[in-house]
Amino acid sequence: MLDLAGLISMCQRLKGPSPEMDSAIETYFSDWEQLWASYIRHKKTGEIVHGQHRAPPPYTASLDAAVTLAAQVLPGWQWGNHPFGNCRRAYVVENDPFRLVPVVADHSFAAIALVLATLRARQLEERGIPRHRHLKALSRIQ
User: Is the overall model pTM greater than 0.90, yes or no?
Assistant: First the structure.
């Protein structure tokens, strides 16, 4: 299983939508893991149930799915997406007066740009970067 840095690296190399990337994102953020043919286990409680993983949402192909990912992974954050040169620029920004610097990503596919910005912002959150160091940390991640 990839860690968050691995997901970001994989996303940066994408040329277009990727079901493999969608599956890797779902595996990273899901509370359930596949055990064997028809059983899954909850990662936190250890509960094992009969069932199978559903197909992951098309995060890298659908802007709607990418927005859903951003809302789930970064609750309370705002997002945006607009043309930038010959690609799309996406950003996510925390709704916080002390952290107004957006996390930005560019890609030729809008959904991939938003997924990449979301993963980068989540990495900042997991690292616990203090708000006044946010801008410096962004330059190291990008």
Answer: no
